[in-house]
Amino acid sequence: VQRYGSHAAGGAEDIAEAPMPGVVIAVHVDQGQRVSPGDTLMVIESMKLETAIKAWREGAVAAVHVGVGQAFQRGAPLLTLAPQTGP
User: Fold this and answer.
1) For the chain, what percent of residues have pLDDT higher than 90?
2) In a 10 Å sphere around its CB, with 0-12 CB exposed, 13-18 middle and 19+ buried, how is residue 81 labelled?
3) What is the pLDDT of residue 44?
């Protein structure tokens, strides 16, 4: 499972960042939805190449930052999972 998020401190482990500039072509989740590792969260397109952004851990979707048809730059936040709590 590929993970498109940075490993920096400060909650960055909860954010899926754009691996390249592109456009969102599909969003498969809604805010509050529970996801499991490997679930497809959204599909982006860059230079005619489609890339699925997949859940890197179990959790709930805290926010979807980009919608279908919306363009973004490399490193832009695409989706945020709610912070994990507990052990």
Assistant:
1) 79
2) buried
3) 97
